[in-house]
UniProtKB/TrEMBL annotation:
Keywords: Methyltransferase, Transferase. It comes from the Eukaryota. This is rRNA methyltransferase YlbH. One of its GO terms (molecular function) is methyltransferase activity. SUPFAM superfamilies: S-adenosyl-L-methionine-dependent methyltransferases (SSF53335). InterPro entries: RNA_MeTrfase_RsmD, SAM-dependent_MTases_sf. Residues 90-109 have a biased composition (Basic and acidic residues). GO terms for biological process: rRNA methylation. Pfam families: Cons_hypoth95. Residues 75-109 are annotated as: Disordered. The keyword Cell cycle does not apply.
Amino acid sequence: MAVSSSPTLSALYFSTNLLSSSPAARAPFDLPCSSFACRRGHYTAVVCSYKPKSELATGDKRSLLESYGLDPNAFLSESAPKGRTRKEGKKTERGKQVTEEKAPEPERTTHRLLQVLGGKAKRKKLLSPKGMDVRPMMEVVKGSAFDILQAAGGCPASLRPGRWLDLFSGTGSVGIEAISRGCVQAHFVEMDPWVISNVLQPNLDWTGFLDLSVVHAVPVENFLKQAQHFVGEDRTFDYISVTPPYMLVDYGILMDLISKSGIIGENTFIVVEYPLRTNMLDSCGCLMKLTDRRFGRTHLAIYGPTWAQKKRK
């Protein structure tokens, strides 16, 4: 009896009794002697391989093997696991390739490009992160904003003493500028721990304003919804700066949260930096829009009390 070792073909074995029993039984396998080893017209051995065009069901395979007196378990039990093992191996290899191709996150670093523009800490350099993950207010925009606030407050040389709230503070450059120009205290709201420990706090320490500052390491939305919890009963601020990452906020929702949070007083000024194609309302709570200026792709809106608008005119 001969055995086929091909793993892709099912080998079928036949006894010489089957082939020589009758012409009817032998008819399907009568082939010229050149195809088989023959001796004096008698077949001594037959090797036959069966490869269907479409895969047979397991039940059909078993029936076919049993019809020739063969044990189906000897041919069907080992074939399936081999295919599964190969497929699983490929999946594992693909998984390893994906893991190996994953690039490590770049290390975050800082540089000193910003500076304080006026007041006690004028010309002091401030840290800012390299890259675009934190985008500080441009110095030309910041300088214009403080000039408008000082003129509106009736004191062109400095700000009226008060408390400043710096939302989305990042480097803290706006709140630091406010303390340098006359504010008695500044609250900074920033949710990135790395920015707080490596940029914001070192800037406060370098300018000497650490004792005049309060840092809130929470999302701005949480701070606005729970302002009384973070700043106490006297939660109104004299100045509020809003400099969010442009593409990550809805300005309509943000300004609505600010107007309903209780942090706005009758004499509060709000500075909002926003991108092109953003519709800003003419009022925020009890405050009116005093000015709206464009600096390239950046817009600057300032809201304040009605008396400030009359004074500017």
